[in-house]
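Hi F.,

I've been meaning to write this up properly since the lab meeting, where we talked about keeping a consistent format for the predictions we share between groups. The idea is simple: the sequence comes first, exactly as it goes in, then the structure tokens exactly as they come out, then a line or two of notes. No screenshots and no reformatting. I'm using this chain as the first example so we have something concrete to point to.
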Amino acid sequence: MGAGTEPDGSSRSDEEWERFLRESVAGTANAPKEPSARAREVARRLRAEPDRSAGGWRDHPPARPKRRVGGYVVGLLIVLALIFVALAPGRVVDLVTGSDSSRPDAQRPTTADPFRGSPAATWASGAAGITMPKEAKAVGWMSAAEVQRALTRSKDFLVASSLDQGVLRGERPEKAIALINPHQKDVQHLLKTAFRTPGEKNNPLLLFSRFQPARAHLVGDVVKTRGALTYEEGERGALKVTADVTFVYPVARTGGDDDILRTIIRRELVLSWDNPDKVSTEPGTFSVISYKYDMTNGGCGTPTGYFAPPFGPDPHTDESGEEVDPYDRDTPFGRGESSKDECGRATRS
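Output, unedited:
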């Protein structure tokens, strides 16, 4: 039902009634002299309430939206926590384990964990870290199967020369030597003199990794490695294999304390599997085209035929020369046949 009714029965809207009542209260000329009881009641109400001419008398102030402050705070804390984990993962481990990796002792290698604090801790062990081409294809005088066999024997040489436990203890690397072409005069001369009278040009370390048992020994039986073999066609249709591998040896002083350091060697070997119709060779052997190595924490000075780790309170300072990162595999080789008698200082080990 409407807010009011005209004498002829027609209805007035609420807005018209409100205007009529306001004019009645204000005493306008057109206002009725004797308003109805309902009109008088409404008039009293209008006098008691503040003027709402700016809006309808049924208007209500809008409700304020609720602020979800708690959700924003939780989200911000999660973002900050993720940033902290990304920037300081070691501190997160400390909080969980109760240790403190910010102290130098927390990163020192131990007998139980000789690769502690080293980038090599996540590397593969031994031969598993030396990757081979996914697929062997025919090259030069060799079929695909022969190329695959030559690649496998090239990797065998790396294992026999730089990972064999006996060779690392200073034994003669007979298995590795057996894979080298016996008709290659310059390399055979190196092999005959290097183990008897080692020198700069005839140093067994150019091809083999060895430690003198009286001075140092490998900690555990794990050597960390990272590298790969690649191949292409070489001279006279030969198969040319290039090996670029980094070896990380954790060692300790023989008869000494528990001071452990890591000798790091990066080797580059270029081998040629020659066509026996064109080059004097023996089946199952290769010729050595070139050999180079980068060494840190392996000793300096007059060659002895063995790596000589510089044990001491700060082994990095025992070496002269420029600072080098032994884990940087992108820089060119700086040691080998034409290198100077100079050792770099490892920035990390």
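Notes:
The longest helix spans residues 69-87.
Helices lie at 14-26, 37-48, 69-87, 89-97, 144-162, 165-168, 174-177, 185-194.

If this format works for you, I'll send the rest the same way.

G.
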